Amino acid sequence: MARKSFIDVSPESDFPIQNLPYGVFKPEPASLPRPGVAIGDFVLDLSQISSAGLFSSPLLSGSDCFNQPTLNKFMAMGRPAWKEARATIQKLLSESEPTLRDNASLRQKALIPMSKVEMLVPMTIGDYTDFFSSKHHAKNCGLIFRGPENAINLNWYYIPIAYHGRASSVVISGTDIVRPRGQGPPVPNSPSPYFGPSRKLDFELEMAAVVGPGNELGKPIDVNNASDHIFGLVLMNDWSARDIQGWEYVPLGPFLGKSFGTTISPWIVTLDALEPFVCGVPEQDPPPLPYLAEKTSKNYDIQLEVQLKPAGKEPCVVAKSNFNHLYWTVTQQLAHHTINGCNLRPGDLLGTGTISGPEPDSVGCLLEKTWNGQKPLSLNGTSRTFLEDGDEVIITGVCKGLDYVIVEARKNGVRLILSLVNNLSAFGGKAQYVKWAQEAGVVNISTSADSFFADSTIKDYYKAYIKAIVTRKNSLSGVRYSEEPAIFAWELINEPRCGFDSCSSTLQAWITEMVAYTKSLDQKHLVTIGLEGFYGPKTIEKSKINPG
Questions:
Q1: CATH code for residues 128-180+196-400+537-546
Q2: pTM (2 decimals)?
Q3: Catalytic, out of 137, 325, 336, 337
Q4: Is 136 a catalytic residue?
Q5: What would the pLDDT profile of 135-158 be if each residue is shown by its tens digit?
Q6: Domain residues of the chain, as ranges?
């Protein structure tokens, strides 16, 4: 059964109890900054929880890491401490735990409405590096500037390419960006470079890893241990002045075309929260050199979206991409960063580079979208080649189950959610469902997804399961349900994922039949049938352009 909080968290909330991202905030303008965790529409003040003595685990007991103006000290403590904190916070926020739930005085001090707080950059960023890890982005840029003969340089397939950015101009989401001034290539009929406000200002859809424990100078981090040095991920927009960048980048790379502003989201989503959404990586061909060869390579299924809002107009979606398009993983990026002995420090920021996919609507910047201004983008009656003054860029990221149907009914004050989920982690996985089915007299259960869902006995078993839940009568051996409001889910498991793509028409037919059966049982109380997502570690970044 899915974990729930005593705090009323909307199903559409970005911040369920399974997420719990970390940030730094001020509850009042004159308050000191302090660490917090997002839960529903509230921020949990970790300094209050710490002062109340509720972090009593071995590594956190007596620590002042949550009485700091940044998260750096907590980040430096490493994964064992992060796991202790997450376990403590989840327990305190759980609906069955009275410690915080029944302490009105502490609740009032520790839970602050998110609408009333000011979010800050959550860590001191000593150094910022931006990688170039999306093959689709690299190819598109190469086609634009070099042509098909040399779209991707040979070294790109061997090296997670990066440049050193400017940490001082990393700002929090919502900070206005002033249009940068600088040199650009000569305009027609002029022998001299252009100088003035950038005429090709662009966004870049990125994410970034936040470094936890660092490494000593001269001691590289093994790629297979690199995840222990990553505290979590943020959304990032590495604003780019394409004309300034194009004029200056040979031979030493970006400078003024990038250093005027980089925006990050206020909440850091931890790798533990993202673990249910681990997925495979694109084939790396040629194979990476041994120091970048991972025993297990991981990407994350994070759906990314960019909206562009011209001043005075409604926002338009201009890009839909996914973190899993990255060719080089964040752990490979970190390991490569240290292979020469470079020392990373807690709070360092490692940007992924623009995350573009293979389709035209999945490219992560206007440079690609408009093919360097040659193909204007239509936006509700107006057009764009690059950003104009007053434009607002909104970037969102969310994790979901790939495709599943959720059937919601309300009966006798009980909210029942019957979901067909493709995530592998909860309820003991397929082995548990096989056990329940065997207890119900079902034998010879196939491990093939198509055979599993097509089996008439399996269908009968699950229909009995649905009926037991909807009627609240335990009429089948092995059925697990609760008399309390709850979420009921079946994990439909077929490695590595069991979505519509892998099970195609068989799974779709199975889901359709189960939904129809549920409707036949309780049409009166059925309020929702549709595609939904699993809980989502979600965050948002938005900033607008001001004239220079």
A1: 3.90.850.10
A2: 0.77
A3: 137
A4: no
A5: 999 999 999 999 999 999 999 999
A6: 22-120, 128-180+196-400+537-546, 404-532
